[in-house]
Specification:
The protein has four helices and 21 strands. By secondary structure, it is mainly β. It has a ten-stranded antiparallel beta barrel with strand order 1-2-3-4-5-6-7-8-9-10. A hairpin with an 8-residue loop joins β9 and β10. It starts with 6 loop residues before the first helix and ends with a strand. The relative contact order is 0.17.
Length: 377
C-alpha cells in the first residue's frame, strides 16, 4: 500500500484545516502550537473524568474554516466500559467521527482519541493522546489532545466543559506544512441525557480499564509518510480508492483499529425512491430521536423536534441510496426532506417523507426503503 499521497489531496479530507484566528479562545490562555513533544497525562492521577463529561448529545453552533453552522450536533455514547464514540453524518457519502478510549501509551495509562473520516475515496484516521488537563474553576475544566507522534506541532484539539456547556476547538498544520491554526470552533450544550445514560448502563461505562492497548506504539510500516520523508510525522493512516468503501479502505490503510472492531455499532442501508418532482433535488437524510413530521408528512409543530437530530447527511449528487455507518443501537426516526429551492436549509415548499420509526439492535445491519417522499410543506 503506497502511503505517499500528495499533501494537497490529504487536505481535502483532513478535519483540521486553516481557520480564522479571531475566533474565541476557549480557555483564556495561549497555547504553544509548535511543540513536537508528546507527554501523556496519567489518568490514574487526573483526566479520567473526561470520558464521563464527554458523553451526551451536544447541540450548538459550529464554525468550520470560514463557514458558520447555526445548528450542529454530536451524539457521544459509550460502546464499551472505557470507549465512547461520536459521529457526524456517518455514511458512504462521507463521515467525520471521533472516539475516546483508555489505553497504555509511552508508559502511561491515558486516554487516546481516534479521529477520521471518509470522503471522495480517501480514508484517514489519526490518533491523538491526552497531554494536558487544566482545572480553570469550579465546574470548568479543559482537556487537550495532541497528535500521538507529532504533538501539537501537527494537530491538536481542546475541549472545555463548563457546567452543561462544551467549547471545542481544533487546530492543524496540514501535517507539518505550516504553523497550526484553528479549523473548527464548536460551542454547545448537552441535550437528551437518556440516550447516553442508557448506553452507559448497558456497558458499565466509565471504567478506568484499557480498551485498545498502544503500549508498543504504532507500526511504522503502516503510518502515512509524506513523499521524500523517511518517517511519519503524524499518527495517521491513509488509503485511497475510486469508491467510498469504508470496510475495504480501513483494512488497506493499515489502521490498527477499524470499523469492524467497534462493539455495539451497526449500520443502515437507506434506499430512496425519487418521483419526478424531486428527481434533481438535494435530499436531507435525518436520523432523530423524535419525529420531524406529523402523520401527514408535515413538519412538526414542536419547536424542539429538530433539536433531536443525531445524524444529518445531505445527498447533493442525485443519489438514491446511502449507507449509514458507525450507528449506535437504539430507537430512531428516519425522515427524508427534498430541498426544493436548493437552499441547503429547511424551508416552506420542501417535500418530506413521513418520519419512520425503527430500532437498531447491537451490531445490526438494517435496510430501510423510503418511497413516500411526496408531502409538500
Amino acid at each position: 500500500m503506497n502511503k505517499h499521497f500528495n499533501l494537497l489531496v490529504i487536505a481535502i479530507l483532513i478535519v483540521f484545516s486553516s481557520c480564522d484566528d479571531s475566533l474565541r479562545n476557549i480557555s483564556g490562555t495561549v497555547e504553544n502550537p509548535t511543540s513536537t513533544e508528546v507527554i501523556p497525562v496519567d489518568i490514574t492521577k487526573d483526566g479520567f473524568d473526561f470520558l464521563a463529561k464527554m458523553q451526551g448529545h451536544w447541540t450548538g453552533s459550529n464554525r468550520v474554516i470560514a463557514d458558520d453552522y447555526a445548528w450542529f450536533g454530536w451524539d457521544y455514547r459509550a460502546i464499551s466500559k472505557s470507549h465512547i464514540q461520536g459521529i457526524h453524518e456517518g455514511g458512504s457519502m462521507g463521515n467525520l467521527f471521533t472516539s475516546f478510549f483508555v489505553t497504555n501509551y509511552k508508559n502511561k495509562k491515558t486516554i487516546m482519541a481516534r479521529n477520521g473520516g471518509l470522503l471522495n475515496g480517501i480514508y484517514r484516521t489519526s490518533y491523538f493522546v491526552l497531554d494536558k488537563v487544566e482545572t480553570l474553576a469550579a465546574n470548568n475544566k479543559k482537556y487537550r489532545f495532541v497528535d500521538a507522534i507529532g504533538g501539537s506541532a501537527i494537530m491538536s484539539f481542546e475541549l472545555r466543559f463548563k457546567n452543561d456547556s462544551l467549547y471545542y476547538n481544533a487546530y492543524t498544520s496540514n501535517l507539518g506544512a505550516r504553523i497550526p491554526s484553528r479549523h473548527m470552533t464548536f460551542k454547545g450544550k448537552k441535550e437528551h441525557l437518556a440516550l447516553s445514560q442508557k448506553a452507559a448502563t448497558e456497558t458499565g461505562f466509565p471504567k478506568n480499564e484499557v480498551e485498545i492497548d498502544f503500549a508498543n506504539g504504532f507500526d511504522p510500516n503502516n503510518l502515512y509518510v509524506e513523499a521524500g520523508a523517511k518517517k511519519a510525522k503524524s499518527a495517521t493512516f491513509l488509503a485511497q480508492s475510486a469508491t467510498n468503501d469504508v470496510y475495504t479502505l480501513a483494512g488497506e490503510s493499515g489502521d490498527p483499529y477499524t470499523i469492524l472492531q467497534h462493539p455495539k455499532l451497526g449500520s443502515i442501508q437507506v434506499n430512496l425512491t425519487r418521483n419526478a418532482t424531486i428527481k434533481d433535488a438535494n435530499l436531507f437524510v435525518y436520523l432523530s430521536k423524535d419525529p420531524l413530521t406529523d402523520n401527514n408528512g408535515f413538519f412538526s409543530t414542536d419547536p424542539n423536534a429538530f433539536n433531536t437530530l443525531l445524524h444529518f447527511p445531505t445527498l447533493t449528487e442525485k443519489e438514491n441510496a446511502l449507507l449509514l455507518t458507525y450507528i449506535h443501537p437504539g430507537d430512531y426516526y428516519l425522515t427524508i426532506i427534498a430541498d426544493q429551492d436548493n437552499s441547503l436549509d429547511i424551508s416552506t415548499g420542501d417535500i418530506t417523507s413521513i418520519s419512520i420509526p425503527f430500532t437498531l439492535a447491537d451490531e445490526e445491519h438494517k435496510t430501510i426503503s423510503v418511497t413516500n417522499i411526496n408531502n409538500q410543506n
